[in-house]
Design goal:
InterPro entries: BIR_rpt, IAP
CATH superfamily: Inhibitor Of Apoptosis Protein (2mihbC-IAP-1), Chain A
Strand content: 15-25%
Number of helices: 6
GO biological process, one term: regulation of cell cycle
Shape: globular
Largest sheet: 5 strands, mixed
GO cellular component, one term: nucleus
CATH topology: Inhibitor Of Apoptosis Protein (2mihbC-IAP-1), Chain A
Number of domains: 1
CATH architecture: Orthogonal Bundle
Number of strands: 7
Distance between the termini: 34 Å
Structural class: alpha+beta
Length: 160
């Protein structure tokens, strides 16, 4: 990376953080506060609660549905091979939590890996169809905001 790329990248990073500086659910900014939401998380889940909490997620109380405390992203229907940080970065590459913990290079690598899988015509899990709609995210939310970003992923084979 040259100096110019770094300067432009740093400026856009600062702007992104400045515009999104407040987490959706500030009561879950600590790892332990997020981890406590997983007390009723299904034991049969593909993902362990420690990885989910470390990646910014809290448990919603519904099946395997989790929500990012920072950006509000909802993810569910986890598969055994899913990597939590990668799924978070893939479905919301502008999440400041992911950006601060993993960095822009990680996010770009995830996006590039996803695009490579698409061009290889392998069966992939498509990126989400996201929309904001009312959704009851469980009893562990106390700010009264029931608007959530809902992402649903479907498995399909890409036909070349």
């Amino acid at each position: 990376m040259n100096i110019l790329q770094c300067a432009v990248g740093c400026r856009s990073l600062v702007l992104l953080v400045h515009e999104n500086s407040d987490p959706e659910y500030p009561q879950y900014t600590s790892f332990l506060s997020r981890l406590k939401t997983f007390d009723s998380h299904p034991a049969r889940s593909c993902q362990d609660k420690y990885s989910l909490a470390a990646s910014g997620f809290t448990y919603t109380g519904t099946e395997d549905l989790v929500q990012c405390h920072y950006c509000g992203l909802l993810l569910g229907q986890w598969e055994e091979n899913d990597k939590v940080w990668q799924q978070h970065a893939l479905h919301n590459p502008k999440c400041v939590f992911v950006l601060l913990y993993k960095g822009m290079e990680f996010i770009e690598n995830v996006k590039n890996e996803f695009n490579l899988k698409r061009s290889d015509n392998r069966g992939i899990r498509d990126c989400c169809r996201c929309k904001s709609e009312p959704y009851d995210v469980g009893n562990n939310r106390d700010n009264g905001n029931s608007q959530a970003r809902i992402c649903k992923s479907e498995s399909y084979d890409v036909v070349g």
